[in-house]
Amino acid sequence: MDPAGLRRRFGSELSTNRAPSRADRHRRFVRVRAILAGGLVLGIGAAATVAAWTDEEHASATLTAGTFSIVGATDGATFTDHPTAPGATLAFAVSPSAMVPGAVVYALYSVKTTPTSVAGTLQLTADAANGSGLGAYLTYGVTAIAGTICSVATFAGGTSIVAPGSVPTVSAAATQAVAAAGASVVNFCFAVTLPSSAVNAAQGTTVTLHYTFGAVAS
Q1: 182 and 114 in contact (C-beta within 8 Å)?
Q2: How far from chain centre, in Å, is Cα 175?
Q3: pTM of the prediction?
């Protein structure tokens, strides 16, 4: 068969197996480059998502508990701690060692907070044992006074804490505020009386009166 006949009979096969032309190679190169470009675009997009910039804010706080402490003074000036009984000894202006019917003795006790203490309240509490011995015949009262001189006049002009004429086992019903860091002082003026009606059985008896100034932080 001549070459023309061969081309007519096997033209499609021959065209399929022929070497790619320059135009074919160019078109194939363009398609591959487009595919690669598309892959590069996708790759850049993924990398940008993974490497996104971030930032943070933080907050913290340090908490410290305060302290609460009180001190007392029998002279209104020399303050110290008396945490347990019997505590400080009240300094009566007139000696209470030989009381007779009708006698009244006065004594000061001052309370404040320490320099590093928070504020709080005070409440005077009487000991149940105050009613023993001579205490069975005594009466007393307490007022809060402005200064440190506890006398018949300042007692009468003070704010009542325990009503005069109360038996020694009566406690204060109300509280008194005490400022932080010793900024204010509460001056308690005690008046202890052996009534003129005291019977002979009171002679020679004795008692140690004990009072507690309970304090609560506020």
Answers
A1: yes
A2: 21
A3: 0.73
